[in-house]
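Translation initiation factor IF-2
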Amino acid sequence: EGTISVKELSDKLKKPVTEVIRELIFVGVMAGINQEIDFETAEKLCKKFDVQAIEKEEEEGAVEEDTDLEEDINGVKRSPIITVMGHVDHGKTSLLDAIKQTDVTSTEAGGITQHIGAYTVKVNNETLTFLDTPGHEAFTAMRARGAKITDIVILVVAADDGIMPQTVEAINHCKAAEVPMIIAINKMDKVGANPDRVKQELTEHGLVAEDWGGDVICVPVSAHTREGLEQLLEMVVLSSEMMELKADPDRNAKGTVVEARLDKGRGPVATLLVQNGTLKVGDSIYVGTTYGRIRAMFNDKGEKIKEAGPSMPAEILGLSDVPSSGERFVVAKDEKTARARADKKAESIRQEKFQKSHKVSLEDLYSQI
Ligand code: GDP
Ligand code: MG
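Structure:
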């Protein structure tokens, strides 16, 4: 839907700005002169002035609506996005690091993988995208914002320790979100490693291993000796192929913030995970109350890139502020629109807070002006 600034609206109505602002208060909107208001509000106001408001048709594909991030049935194949979960000290970080080292492309480039919160690994001819953020945090953010940012979960269970409270928590998260799990039975190199005990405990949570007649893939691995890593990654590829994940690279990009921080020299830096479309340098995006034009983009190897397609993480520069991880970003037709979207979001947050804190009648407010 389109927006119009208070100033533009007053010009169109040929009414003084103060009068427009006053009338806006009566319809419950506190707005400044440069603020963008939505069509619905503008329409209400026009009615008061006996003017009929007609919404301009948005140009084709001008603004991507931030609706769902469901599979694009007309799209092409995209890589799976994988999160590693599991109980503390069962080896999530070690496993992620070991997986990172299987990528020849990163060793060719000097073996330096930048920490940007997500990375890609090539297995045979397939690309896998791993989220580096702890799975629990990713899930909390996902649940808070209703965004789906993982296709497959690798659940790490230490072979010498078995199912623990956070393992159960992870299983429940995955079941609730309907995300398939692949079990990595880790620390197989340790004395006392007992994969059968892990499988036994899994059955208590409704998960039956394949070799026990069920459909849950369990791969014995060791992050230390790298035993089973290749097989684990092959299983991930196989599972993702069965899921037939799709996206449309020709659309404007949208996706999720993986992590973000303020860099002293470069300003706000954010890692975005593109979930549909292609993100390009020069694109204007909005994310929550933040917006900006992408000034530069880098991949997980720290290389400068011009675009990032579906399932690709990219570190970007150019945002007005630091967004929160888990927030969704959308490409707008231009920076002005992106800013208007961000401002609108900020305004709705302000109003929500305002309405919560002061339950003052609009008439009371009017008399204060
Ligand atoms: P996280 O808390 O799940 O991220 O676990 P970490 O990756 O930090 O690992 C916890 C401890 O287990 C560390 O001391 C690791 O060195 C150790 N560890 C992780 N994977 C293995 C493994 O495959 N074999 C052995 N022997 N130790 C492991
Ligand atoms: Mg860790």
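The first helix runs from residue 6 to 13.
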